Amino acid sequence: MNKAYYLLIAILIISCNRKQPETKNSEKVADFENIVGAGYLKLTADYDECGEWGGHHEEIKIIRKEKKLFAEITKDSVDCKHLESRKVVEKKRIELNEIHRKAISDYLHELLNKSLEEQIPYHAGQWYSAGTIDSTLVLNYHEGGNQWKGFLKLKEKLSK
Questions:
Q1: DSSP 8-state assignment for residue 34
Q2: Are the beta carbons of 56 and 49 closer than 8 angstroms?
Q3: Rounded distance, CA 6 to CA 2, Å?
Q4: Which long-range contacts (CB under 8 A, 24 or more apart) does 138-147 make?
Q5: Whole-Å CA distances, 66 to 72, 133, 136, 152
Q6: Could you report the per-residue pLDDT of 70-108, keeping only the tens digit for each?
Q7: pLDDT digits (tens, 9 = 90+) for 21-44
Q8: Which of 18, 25, 30, 31 has the CB geometry, 3.0–4.6 Å to 105, for a possible disulfide?
Q9: Is residue 41 within 8 Å of residue 61, measured between CB atoms?
C-alpha cells in the first residue's frame, strides 16, 4: 500500500508540473477599443534611400469613425538631391475587417519583439514606430540591414 501511495503522489506531482500549451498572442485579434474620439494608432516607416539623410516616409493611421475601424495609408516620395521636395504618392482609406485587425495585431507583436532585440543604431537605416496619440503605446525599432519586411507585409495584407 505504501508503494501505491507514493506512486500516486509521484504521478500527481509530475502531472501538475507538466507545462500546459500556451495560447499565442498572435492568435488573439485586438479590438482596438482604446481608439475612440480623436484617438488613433499610428504605424510609421521611414526609409533610408538617401543614406543618413533619410528617405521616403510611410504611415498607417488606425482611426475609428462611426463605430468602425479604418486605416488611412499614406506614402510620400523624396528626391535625394532636394530633400525638402516631398510629395504624397499614395493615399487611401480602407475599412478594417477581422483579418486586417489580426494583421495589425501580429505586426505590433513582431515590432515589440524586434524593438527588444535592437542593437546600437547606425546613422542610416529604416525606422519603424507605433504609437497612440496619448502615448499609452510607444514602440520604436531601428534596423540597419533592410532585412525586416514587417511593414511591407502589413501593407500587403491591408490591401487585400
A1: T
A2: yes
A3: 6
A4: 139/108, 139/111, 139/112, 139/115, 140/115, 141/111, 141/114, 141/115, 142/118, 143/114, 143/118, 146/48
A5: 15, 19, 23, 28
A6: 999 999 999 988 878 889 999 999 999 999 999 999 999
A7: 544 544 667 778 878 777 899 999
A8: 30
A9: yes
